[in-house]
């Protein structure tokens, strides 16, 4: 396979995953903002989670609901807006067209056409839930076409690496923005404000139901941290995403007959960050833990580009 | 093929006085770097798309010979797929020869042209100028259907005297490059130094016989519109036989007598640029306004050698569906021909191009033309 194709697949699926994460964040943000006295704080926190807060402030100044939502949904100035992500995913899909099945290509292309129309400038507050639901629905459809029609070979593996690198990144960022409400000191507080924050975290990864199924009605920060960091059953947890990275690098090693530095780094990532108890993680400092995790994860991405000659 | 080989070797046809020397020497499409060069398998024109028109019951003419990088074959295949879905009953009632094997036939034909000494199954790749080229869809479509890599200049490099592509496992040699970029952009060291589409050093690898370029550089000399007028003569020279398909009578404006005839009948003729394509830079006399005729007359007189003229043909029509119902529109037909040392394969079908404007004779898709599925019936 061409190095360029591997890179195109990786980025196509990173962008698709990012668009989906952002849709969840916006949906959860809207819900929380509606139930709070200072809703703009929630939007600032969502901007922070998508790592675009600085760019937003440079462009728009103060955080206002309307501009913040437009920024995340359809602003072309924001390379991580849902629309920008979908456009980038489609451009990559065109580039790697020969590696995709017709079903996957058509599904991505149609997603682009549908969302280009749906996420227009004129989107009103009432349209927001339907718009974010549409983004998620389209993401499910692309994933379905991908899972249902693609050959399980190196093409599949590079796409999966993109998906889970992005997912691990997104979940870690979400936790890092809200880390202070998950600290042991916060457990004692248990005020209504914190309850809202905890709910917001779970909503942002579509995990309210899954959490309840696992831990019951009582929402505790320690459980949330455990669930989203270490639980390998939770599809948006760090443990799950990193597990998938390890698997897919493993498949590549088998296909190509040798291991690469990025494989070792991913094994080390799992050993360093996930073979630990939640109590140690919290005691040693959640913020530092997440920052270090994000740094090491980014380094794996860079190493992967080199190992598989994405660009040169 | 015999013609191209001769032109780039002994030029017997020129020595015999059957083709004026300046038609070759002063032709922009003549590629001096191909002189004395033997393309792998002796094949110059691996893929040919010949434009045919019908002017009477059994009257067919060759309108153009496209032997550089003819496009449009993906339309032939997609039109058929669409027809199969929309009108399945037509295919139950009629026995239509399939065209769907074209990509496999193309790959086989290209592979058969691999350089001597290629070990194992030859590695074929399609070279595209990239995403923003208007034919990118076709390039990726063909690569996909042939099961070969679609590469751009920046995926390629010369490694150890071979053309190689950058893969996830390092550089891997290519034996046959089906290139869909023009000669001038193939190799910035040999041709256009500004080109970022090509591969530095590619032409040296080619000259060393270690990669096949399809089609070969310099084939344009054979489909050039001035050479076209000599084609019946060329066919007779190499085969000793009369051509099976007629050419459209053509006046060469480089000849003063013929030029004066063209100028006297400008409003009746079609005048084309010698190297033009895509339906650009041409005049259709009967459809042109007085001002257009005058403007074209000036251009023609300024550089007569750049033009040829032909009578306006009564092209055949096919019915198309318009808002007002069925209506006739002019068409031409481009069948696709594959050439390899194993022989010549003509695809049983082709691209029928339709001028969608009533009365128009310009069928080029870049000028708003449409296409139609084209059938060859089983006997």
UniProtKB/TrEMBL annotation, chain A:
Residues 1-308 form the DUF403 domain. Pfam families: Alpha-E. PANTHER family: BLR5612 PROTEIN, SLL1039 PROTEIN. This is Uncharacterized protein putative in bacteria.
Automatic annotation (TrEMBL), chain B:
It comes from the Bacteria. Signal peptide: none annotated. This is Circularly permuted ATP-grasp type 2 domain-containing protein. SUPFAM superfamilies: Glutathione synthetase ATP-binding domain-like. Pfam families: CP_ATPgrasp_2. Residues 2-355 form the Circularly permuted ATP-grasp type domain. InterPro entries: ATP-dep_Glu-Cys_Ligase-2, CP_ATPgrasp_2.
